[in-house]
Specification:
CinA (chains A, B); homodimer; 37% helix; Alpha-Beta Plaits; six-stranded mixed sheet; elongated; 27% strand; 9 helices
């Protein structure tokens, strides 16, 4: 038995025309999602919006009302298209201020790189009331304001900021997953999957078909916050697959 | 001079717990975005939502009201977690029906693979009033209902469905882009970028920094629907970079 427990949720806003034009393949959704899982927080929704203030403001206000935490990636650099700080400040109804610690960080970072200029100083701007998220990869910090986290768009800098936040956020029981692979068309075992999931109410089963080496197969991903229920559900599923005459591969194919 | 022209826009809803858990790296956002560019349609917003009917319904109703076209990927397979058709039908307020042509397609496809069963027949279900989007990769079709397009989640099947739709949708002038690469910290030329963009009102300049081989650089992406304005903006930008003493690389680095 697991006791009922609060499920902590997060929203993510990916900001940037480069994702919406198809020029850049987003990597932050998967990265933030995986990191949140380990913190015991579920990524509940992602929105990708352009570099347009009104669109960022609308997304921030929708998602911060809906979930416990809100993350953004992108738009906190030095150039004219970096408008995330202004948009978030507008959404919160607070002014944008220069954070003195961010200014000091940037002064040190750029001391032997030509010094601070107007563009670089933009990266010290924060919505009033914010703290910094340190970032060892580049001078510019991320920004935390309560349950709102503004992070870089460049994936390895985002990674450094997530690293700085690891273990800092309250979360619930991490969602546990087990994957079972099988060389079977998912359509052959759809009824089995439905029945096994229905019999294990704390578990969800996802079915992810693939085509490889000229054959069809599927990975069945079972998720639960209870290790005991997860095991019982996986056992029922593998028993069912065996009864239907299908070999399965623990860990997935 | 370009004449004022309608800008055609699309929303995309990526449906699936596997993206939100970080298990699967989404590839459909970039794929749909690039395809839309060629059709003269701008991807204006993406939402990633879980396999939960109420959340899909909300996203469908928000985005179909906001944009000219709406695409979804994921959740149209044979298993219990494939609920896109039901959610979209609920959003539109129409019943789910079996499409006779889809049923016939699936009967042929599965004739020598064990025949239709309950799970496979799920893939013939459509919101009433829909047409099919044919798919050479697997038996199951995508679904079109007016300006709403329901596509597969598996990227190479999505690709086949996009291929079937190529040239079928009304769009505007394709957005043209030119990329100029430069081994410069974007923070050094932020003011130049801002001034050049301001001087070319039909153009947007995006700045995408990178770190490679131990050096910083950036690609500047200039976008416009006017080839003439695009060239003029790129010329101003490369002149400015040269004036600042920076080499540039047409086509990007």
């Amino acid at each position: 038995m697991t006791s009922p427990e609060k499920i902590w949720t997060a929203g993510l806003i990916v900001i940037g025309d480069e994702i919406l034009s198809g020029r850049t393949q987003d990597k932050n959704i998967a990265q933030v999602a995986s990191w949140l899982q380990v913190q015991g927080i579920r990524l509940a929704e992602v929105r990708v919006v352009p570099d347009v203030e009104s669109r960022i403001v609308a997304a921030v206000n929708d998602l911060r009302a809906a979930f416990d935490y809100l993350f953004t990636t992108g738009g906190i650099g030095p150039t004219h298209d970096d408008i995330t700080v202004d948009a978030v400040a507008a959404a919160l109804g607070v002014p944008v201020v220069i954070h003195p610690d961010a200014r000091a960080l940037l002064e040190r970072y750029y001391a032997n790189k030509g010094g601070l200029n107007e563009g670089r100083l933009r990266m010290a701007r924060v919505p009033e009331g914010s703290e910094l998220i340190l970032n060892r990869m580049s001078g510019a910090p991320g920004i935390r304001r309560g349950n709102l986290f503004l992070m870089a768009g460049v994936p390895h800098i985002t990674a450094g900021m997530l690293d700085a936040l690891t273990g800092q956020l309250e979360g619930g029981a991490p969602l546990l997953t087990e994957t079972i692979g099988c060389w079977v068309a998912e359509s052959e075992v759809a009824d089995l999957l439905r029945r096994v999931e229905a019999a294990h109410e704390t578990c969800q089963i996802g079915s992810y078909p693939f085509f490889r080496e000229g054959r069809v197969g599927a990975n069945f991903v079972v998720r639960s916050t209870s290790a005991e229920d997860l095991k019982s559900c996986c056992d029922s599923l593998t028993d069912g697959l065996a009864t239907h005459g299908h070999d399965f591969t623990p860990g997935g194919i």
